[in-house]
Each structure stands twice: as C-alpha cells, then as structure tokens.
Specification:
The complex is a heterodimer of chains A (about 450) and B (about 350). Chain A is mainly α and about 450 residues long. Chain A contains 16 helices and ten strands. In chain A, helix 1 packs antiparallel against helix 5, helix 2 crosses helix 3 and helix 7 crosses helix 12. With about 350 residues, chain B is mostly helical. Chain B contains 13 helices and two strands; from the N terminus they run H-H-H-H-H-H-H-H-H-H-H-H-E-E-H. Chain B has a two-stranded antiparallel ribbon with strand order 1-2. The radius of gyration of chain B is 21 Å and the shape is globular. In chain B, about 50% of the residues are buried. The chains are: A mainly alpha (about 450), B mainly alpha (about 350). Chain B: It is a multi-pass membrane protein. Chain B: Its main location: membrane. Chain B: It is found in: Cell membrane. Chain B: Belongs to the cytochrome ubiquinol oxidase subunit 2 family.
C-alpha cells in the first residue's frame, strides 16, 4: 500500500467511523424527545425510564462522535494540506456555521443530561429538542461542505488560480440540497432500524417487555417513515448526479456504453477489461428514466470519460447495489410494519415481524456506509470534481501507512469498547432503568 | 473584519487554554492524587466539569476552523510539518474524551473503571504536553520548508528543548488552573485544603517550568528574553501578572474562593499576551527567516468577511447559552435536587 492509498484509507476509515456516531447523536435526541414528551404528558414512568436509558447510551455515542469529529477537522489538513490550502477559504462557510451549531448542541446536551429534576420539566424537554435540531443542522452543514466537492461553485478557476471567491454561493452549491436531504433521511432510517432492532431482540428474549415495546415503537415509526421517504430523495440525487457527475453515475451502474433508452442494471459483475457486465438483471429504459425522467433519453457511458478520469468501477457499482438493495428491503419491512399498525395489530406481537426487525438491525448503517462509498469513491480521481485531483492534494509526508495502522488500531478498539458498553447498558436495563416509580431516584 | 477574525482566533486560543486547560488539569490533579482520595476527587471533578467539558473543547474546533477558513496557508503548513505532534495530540483527545465519558456512563462499575481512569489521567497529561509543543514549535524557527530529510522536515521541526519545555509549562499551567478552580467546587474543608496544596505545588511547578523555557530558549538561540521583556507591553503584563499572583495567594489564604479564579485567568491571559504580541501579525516563524503572517497569509476578503459574520452571529447564540449553562450548574451544583414525581 503506498502513502496515497494509505491516506485515502485513513480518511475513509475516519469518516466511516464518525458517520455512525454522528447519525446516532443527531437522531436519538428526537426519539428521546418523543418518549420524554409522553412521560411529561402521561406520567407513565416507563417513558421516563426509556428516555433516561437512551440518554445514557447517547452520552457515550455523543462523546465518541465529538472526539472523532474533532479528529476529522485536523485530518483534513494532516492528510490533504494542498486541498485545504485552496478549498478552505471557499467551502469553509458551512464549517464556520457548524461550529456554532455544534457548540449549541454541546451546551444543550449539558443541560439535558445533567438537568433531570433541576429545571422546569418543559425547559428541560426543550433543551433535549435543541440538541436534536442543532445536531441536524450541523449534519446538514457538513454535508453541504461535502456537496461542494462534488459540485464546486462560488469561485472561478483561471490558470490554476482560484478567483472571485463567494463563500455563500459555495455553501449553497447545486448538490447541497439533494445530498443533505438524502443524508438526513438516511440518518433517521439507519438509527431507527438499528435501535428498533436492538429492542426487538430484547422483546424476543422476554426481557423487560413493556419497556422494550415502547422503545421499539418510537424507533420503528421514525425509521419506517424515513425508509419509505428515502426513494424520493434518492431519485432527486440520481437525477442530480446524472446531470453533473456522469462518470459517477456510469460507475454506479457499470454503464460502459453511451446509449439511448439505457437499461437499469441490477446486480451483475462488471468486467472492466472487456467493458461488459456478466449476470446482471437489466430493466430496459429504466436507467434513462431514472437519470433524466424520460425512457428514451441518452445516458452517458464510461466510453465518454477519459480513462484517467474514471472512478473505480467495481467498488462504486457494488456499493450502489448494496445501498439500493438494503433500502428496498427496509422499505418492504416498513410497509409490513405500517400494515400491521393499520390493519393487522396481531402481527405487532408476532415473532416473525420482530425477527425481521432484529435481522435488519445493521441494514441502515450498512446502507449509509455504502452510500458514502458511492459518493466518495465515485468522485475519484477528483477531490474537487473537475478541478483538483486527490493525488495532487495528499500530504508530502512519507510513512502515512503507519498513521493508517495506528488509526485503525485506535478506531477498532474504540468500536469494540463502545459495543461492549452498549451491551452492558442493555443487559442492565432491568436493574438500572426499568424501575417502578418509587425507586427511580436511584438513577442519575 | 480581518481584525475581528484575528480577535476571535486569539480569544478562542485563550479560552481553550483557560477552559480546556482547566479541564485537562483536572486529570493532571487526579494523577497527583493519592489512591485514598481518588474517588472523592473524581466526584468533585465530575460535578465540576461534567456538564461543560464538551463545550470547553469546542474552542479548539473554533480555533481550527478559523485557521483553515481564514488562514489556510498557515493551517496547511502547520499540518504538514507538525503532523506527528498533531497526531499524538489527537490520539490524546480521543482517549481522554472517551475515557471520561465511559467511566461515568458505563452501566456496570467494575475493573474497567481502573482502565478508564488510567487512560483519562495519562491522556490528560499527553494532550496539553503536545499542545504546548505545537505552540512552542510555531515560534521556535525550526520548521524548515526547505528540509530534505524526513528527520529535518517532520521531527526536528518540533522535537527540541524549547518546544518540549513549552509543553511541560503548558501542563503545569493546566494543573494550576484546575486546582484553583476546584478549590471553589468543593464544600468540604479538608478537600479544599488538599486542592490548596495542589495549587501551590502546581504554581511552583509552573514557575519552574517557565524558568526552564527561558533556559531552553537561551540554549536554542531563541531570543525569548528579548521578546518578553524587550518592550513595555511585555514588561507591564509580566509585572501585572506577578502582582496578581501575590494578591491571589493572599486572598486564597483569606478564604476567598471565587475571585482567585479571575486572577489566575488574568495571569494566563497576560502570559499568552506577551508571547504572542511581540511577533504579531506573524504566528509561525520558519527556519529560513521566513514567517507566516495573519495579515499576509489570509484568505480572500470575501471569505474573511463571511467568516467574521459567522463568528459574530455565532457569539449571539453561544455566549448567553454558555454563561447560563455555567451559571446554572454553579448555582445548582450544591443545591438539593427538586423532586418532580
């Protein structure tokens, strides 16, 4: 592995690690706000217990997300100094605002976590909601910065110089809305399914059934609504990518030859040497429709992209298939769940439905990782689409491979500790959280 | 607007040094606490920094964002030549933040606590040490863009007696700030006496390490003495800091617990002032006599304009909320819990 690949791997690892924690940190406050609201409204102690148990878990995830995010703000410079030297002043606006949003999130979290029984209950509830809203805003801002790399705007690139810089225009680049929408919904779907899955497992084990049933329902409703909405935002993203990053779309679909009425490829093994795909299922005309809203439209293939500007085809294609496939499965499960809520209430307590949710626990997060792989690998060889190559941005310092090993060790052990702690949290629910009203003040 | 941004940069560094510093210092104090007193210290410490520790570390992020948006060449140069100490500092930040959260939120209290404690304490030492090393190497003139070997470019840029002394000095300052802060955070007399002793020890250590910085500077040929005492601002600031130190100890012995924080903060502010004002607007000095200047190596006007606006706008939201957070927990920390059920 050379230093360039090591730097890219380290960045991928750090982002892939951080995204899980930031999704949870950004979405869980909304789940907690719902259970907290039920507690304040109904005075049923189980809702307070759910809120507290979740908030303990969130504190762990939030701290891990905060430090891994701090690391990223340095890594951008440590690994890609030439990129930051030119891009910082152009796409920095969302980061400047994100600083504020994240600061507010940290302050509100302080109020929320340490404020039980210390403040007016509704003030306390509002601080929880502020945690969620400012987290979501931070997420949207960071995605807007990433969108700029896909869709650079707000400057003119003349003879290697970046002139006429407009940071506001850069922030509201063409891709920001579709990407931010897609990611925000994805965060809700992934977190919803993960949380619902964990609680489903506990219900299946007959542990603290009421507690876990209440928790399951809140998470499942959020996750399922998001999963059903996601194809709409996905469609928006696909059309956007087709217009501005044809190479990425071609790699996603392993679309080697430019053609009219292009067919949508499902699965398949791309053979880059012979420029064909083996074994895939082809749905005629559908790719043209998805990309341009017209079954006869022409879709640019990889044959129109100079070889040195093509992204890695196989990785992009497989990642896209994984994302879409899991998205479809989650949609189907969401359909079943709402059907159960609407017509077949007896399904809700059936083992098969809970089993399906248990199996789907990691589905959303795998889809999120796959989706980011499509975005990032699909943009290669560019770090700023069409302007700067990733290879030209990397740090001149040799030996990045060791840094990559170091970070891998740190993140793997951190992930193990977090999983271990989460396991302990869940196992202790009966002793620490699911308590009758009288003994509740033991929990702090 | 450029000066607004520079003001924010300086203020963010100062606040990180004060608030983040006291936060690191809490771990350093724990390091110097005997096992018998450890769990009591941990409780005081948790009550004191628990609600605000994440906010304290936001100042570092603000500093970094101001640098990479407003002064990208400075950020990029430091990232390249100080890659190694920055990476070690980051590992310290990861270890410390997670260990602090884990030891409180772990649902089961068992042997793992010992591991979290150890990680927390060691990383509380390592992180400010390397922050200080980074600060020292930015003015040690050892960063060499012309260097041809790995050692010259990426190791000797920061590994020298001067930078390491600045690192140690930073560690002692953090411990000192934490001790002074914690004196006001405990209701027990014995505990307070213990933190007083810690404060005295850290104060002496800081003076010792400060002297070491001057010796190391002399040995490395860095005209630190001239930077600090060569102009009236430096002289005034150092005299004021020394006076406030004397006053602070007088008040501490008298039993004043809160005003002394302001005086300790003032001393640190003066130290940061004298060490930055001499080279202003240059913040990184290079080996070949070159420098990176806040005025010359800044982003485009429009960038500075929008960055300044974002910072001003942010302050309107952040500062009142932050003060209310600190105020609430200061006021309510010792008050009995209201029961709502």
């Amino acid at each position: 592995m050379d230093d360039f690949i090591a730097a890219r791997s380290q960045m991928a690892l750090s982002l892939g690690f951080h995204i899980i924690f930031s999704c949870i940190g950004m979405v869980m406050p909304f789940f907690m706000a719902v259970s907290h609201w039920y507690w304040l409204k109904t005075n049923k102690i189980v809702y307070k217990n759910v809120t507290k148990a979740w908030s303990q878990g969130v504190a762990i995830f939030f701290a891990t997300g905060a430090v891994s995010g701090t690391v990223l703000s340095f890594e951008l410079g440590l690994l890609w100094p030439k990129f930051m030297n030119h891009a910082g002043p152009i796409f920095g606006m969302p980061f400047s605002l994100e600083g504020t949003a994240f600061f507010i999130e940290a302050i509100a979290l302080g109020f929320f976590l340490y404020g039980w029984d210390r403040f007016n209950p509704w003030f306390h509830w509002v601080t929880g909601v502020i945690v969620g809203i400012s987290g979501l805003v931070s997420g949207i801002l960071v995605v807007a910065a990433n969108a700029w790399m896909n869709s650079p705007s707000g400057f003119d690139y003349v003879n290697g110089q970046y002139i006429n810089i407009d940071p506001i225009k850069a922030m509201f680049n063409d891709a920001w809305f579709s990407q931010a929408l897609h990611m925000s919904i994805a965060a809700f779907a992934a977190t919803g399914f993960a949380v619902a899955g964990v609680h489903a497992i506990m219900i299946l084990k007959h542990k603290n059934v009421e507690f876990h049933t209440k928790s399951f329902k809140i998470a499942a409703v959020f996750g399922c609504i998001a999963a059903l909405l996601q194809p709409l935002s996905g469609d928006l993203s696909a059309k956007y990518v087709a217009r501005t990053q044809p190479a990425k779309l071609a790699a996603m679909e392993a679309h080697f030859h430019t053609e009219k009425s292009a067919s949508l490829l499902i699965g398949g093994i791309p053979d880059t040497k012979n420029k064909r795909v083996d074994y895939g299922l082809k749905l005629p005309g559908l790719l043209s429709f998805m990309a341009h809203g017209n079954f006869d439209a022409e879709v640019t293939g990889l044959d129109q992209i100079p070889i040195q500007n093509q992204p890695p085809i196989a990785i992009t294609h497989y990642a896209f298939q994984i994302m879409v496939g899991l998205g479809m499965l989650m949609m189907a499960l969401s359909g079943l769940y709402f059907l159960a809520l609407w017509k077949y209430r007896n399904w809700l307590s059936s083992r098969w439905l809970l089993n399906l949710f248990a199996v789907a626990t990691p589905a959303g997060f795998i889809a999120v990782e796959a989706g980011w792989t499509v975005t990032e690998v699909g943009r290669q060889p560019w770090i700023i689409q069409g302007i700067m190559r990733t290879a030209d941005a990397v740090t001149p310092m040799p030996g990045i491979i060791y840094s990559f090993y170091l970070y891998t060790g740190v993140y793997v052990s951190l992930a193990l500790v977090v999983i271990f702690m989460l396991y302990r949290q869940i196992r202790m629910v009966g002793k620490l959280y699911d308590l009758p009203a009288t003994s509740n003040q033991l929990v702090h | 607007m450029l000066y607004v941004v520079i003001g924010y940069l300086w203020a963010a560094i100062l606040l990180y040094l004060l608030l983040g510093g006291a936060d690191f210092g809490a771990g350093i104090i724990e390091f110097f606490t005997s096992e018998a007193n450890q769990s009591r210290t941990q409780k005081t410490l948790y009550r004191a920094i628990g609600p605000i520790w994440e906010a304290n570390h936001m100042w570092l992020i603000i500093t970094v964002v101001i640098l990479f948006v407003g002064f990208p060449a400075i950020y990029a140069t430091m990232s390249v030549y100080l890659h190694i100490p920055l990476t070690i500092m980051l590992l310290g930040i990861i270890a410390r933040g997670t260990a602090f959260a884990f030891r409180h939120y772990d649902a089961v209290v068992d042997d793992m606590q010992g591991l979290y404690n150890r990680i927390f304490v060691y990383s509380s030492f390592i992180t400010p040490l390397f922050l200080g090393i980074i600060a020292g190497s930015s003015v040690s003139s050892h960063i060499d863009p012309m260097a041809t070997t790995f050692l010259d470019a990426y190791v000797y840029s920061w590994l020298d007696w001067f930078s390491v002394s600045v690192g140690l000095f930073t560690v002692t300052i953090c411990g000192y700030l934490a001790a002074i802060y914690l004196i006001g955070e405990t209701a027990s007399h014995g505990e307070r006496q213990r933190f007083m002793r810690k404060a005295r020890f850290m104060n002496l250590a800081a003076v010792g390490c400060g002297a070491l910085v001057f010796v190391a500077a002399y040995a490395e040929g860095i005209p630190l003495f001239n930077w600090v005492f060569g102009n009236w601002i430096g002289l005034t600031a150092i005299s004021a800091a020394t006076l406030s130190l004397v006053l602070m100890w007088y008040l501490l012995v008298k039993g004043k617990r809160y005003i002394v924080r302001v005086l300790a903060g003032f001393q640190i502010t003066m130290i940061l002032l004298v060490t930055t004002i001499h080279h202003f607007p240059n913040i990184v000095l290079l080996k070949n006599g070159g420098y990176l200047s806040l005025l010359e190596h800044r982003g485009h006007d429009k960038t500075i304009e929008s960055l300044g606006t974002a910072l001003l706008l942010g302050s309107v939201f952040i500062l009142p909320a932050l003060f209310y957070l600190i105020y609430s927990f200061q006021k309510k920390a010792h008050a009995p819990l209201k029961q709502n059920f």
